[in-house]
Amino acid sequence: MIKDKREVARRGEAAAIPTAWEYAPAPESREIVHFEDRYGLYIGGQFLEPLSNERYTTIDPAREEPLAEIAQAGKADVDRAVKAAREAYAERWSQLRPSERAKYLFRIARILQERSREFAVVESLNGGKPIRESRDVDLPLAAAHFFYYAGWADKLEYAFPNRTPRPIGVAGQIIPWNFPLLMLAWKIAPALAAGNTVVLKPAETTPLSALLFCDVVRQAELPPGVVNIVTGDGRTGAELVSHPDVDKIAFTGSTEVGKAIQRTLAGSGKRLTLELGGKAANIIFDDAPLDQAVEGIINGIYFNQGHVCCAGSRLFVEESIYETVISKLKRRMKTLRVGDPLDKNTDVGAINSKQQLDKIGSLVQSGIDEGAEIYQPPCKLPERGYWFVPTVFTNVAQSYRIAQEEIFGPVLSVLTFRTPDEAIEKANNTPYGLSAGVWTEKGSRILAMAQKLRAGVVWANTYNRFDPASPFGGYKESGFGREGGRHGLEPYVALDGS
Ligand code: ADP
What is 172-214 written as a DSSP string? Predict the structure, then answer.
């Protein structure tokens, strides 16, 4: 019985979809992309065979097809990468005039723009995200990040007036699979702008855009060793974290791993920034423009299949408009197009991995078991690949796991409130504090709510909006440190006395 329900949860009701106004397929060509059969580790400006001799296969989650063989870096490999980064730091990068560093970053930004279609296809193939998003969000933002920090490289003394900012050395950076290239940009751009060198480890399921980025680094003629990319799973990440010659660790990923890293680094003197999970509240007041708010709810939770740490996964609706919002939301959900990430009409792509699909499935099952009411629009999914139908739960109590735990999938939990104070109390009733959304026509209410919400980012009458000039990061178990903006430089500079 339970198994059947789970099947329904994954696959959606198999109702017929009207075909009269069906979109014609509009697949992006993958011809523009060429993958090697196997990749080495990018260390000191060249691809090296892993000393570990270990490899694994990276796949396309929408087709369950192999794309390339990837190196699993071991301790000795990480050591080589850190040595290359140290040498490049001491002999080249930290010695360069800041305006020269800026030139390299501008170059990288421009190359990313020039090659954006190629990168967008790679991102969608390896990660499962719709090409519309990788083309219109991930790539433009990644390039913008390099442009932005290129601008800061020779103006650091203005970012920290009356202080003397200095680079700190070698940064070890570990990133997740939800925005592979964008997270790479968030990590590498400020580090390089401030004069540091980096060893970056992409997530094991999505290494390909980081490996393609090595080609951009070569094209930009960045001095060898300034950027090093080591691939592998959590074991490689752990080696990087515990390497004695790394000065700073920047990590984006799960709260669980973030806590483990913090434990490892305690007392080591290494700097650390953590950007971890979230369970954001998206709060809709009765005076909000409801049609726009519904778009914001959809974008908040179904963007990138909900694989977003700041996803608006808890929806708080003022009780008086509850029925209207839910019926508009369900109507809008019926128009979401789930399927081939490379199709330009697709709204919701593939789940990144089998492991993540199972995790989403079991949390959804817990919601059903605990008594929440599930709704999924009729939806026809491809036979192969990892898919999950956009899902909304109503009748949710705050104690349910689906209201407490990060699902990291296209699953929304709806709760209600009567007063602004109740909304604040419920919204803050979470161990996380990364982001929140407020929808109302009153500016004063927006400001009052923003002050009381314990979240690093509060969006007003919009959601999931990013800008390189705006700092991003969390409170509580969502981590510490900020990325983006002037604040994003701070973790990468030593100031007098620090
Ligand atoms: P997610 O739930 O998003 O997969 P993880 O925290 O497991 O989040 O993964 C984020 C990144 O952290 C990935 O690059 C992963 O390989 C890496 N990682 C996993 N375990 C560890 C660890 N013990 N130490 C360092 N990095 C790790």
Answer: EEE--SSSHHHHHHHHHHHHHHTT-EEEEE--TT--HHHHHHH
